[in-house]
Amino acid sequence: IKPENLLVSKADGDMLVKLADFGDAMLVTSPCRGAHGECGTHEYRAPEVISGMEHGSAVDIWALGVLMFEMMNGYTPFSWQGRGVRDAHRNTLLQELVFPDDDEDED
Length: 107
Description:
Elements: E1 6-11, E2 14-19, H1 47-50, H2 58-73, H3 85-94
Pfam families: Pkinase
Protein name: Protein kinase domain-containing protein
Domain Protein kinase: 1-107
């Protein structure tokens, strides 16, 4: 889940958000089986995916959290632009998450 996969439309005066691009989608038949291996866009990958651990639908909740953070702040929570994939993954695994100060917007 990332901004590029959200489609916004208007129907009967209501805004609708639709999820698109299920290129890495899979059917999860059991909550404990999950998937194994790399998938998804680096900025939105959950630690389980980065670490190569078995994972399930919780990684989608992680990606949604990253997306919501980006929508509220204008950037993803774990800075990695201009760096390689290894640095991006290291930041996601090790960097402390810092939320912007609410007082910054009140100037």
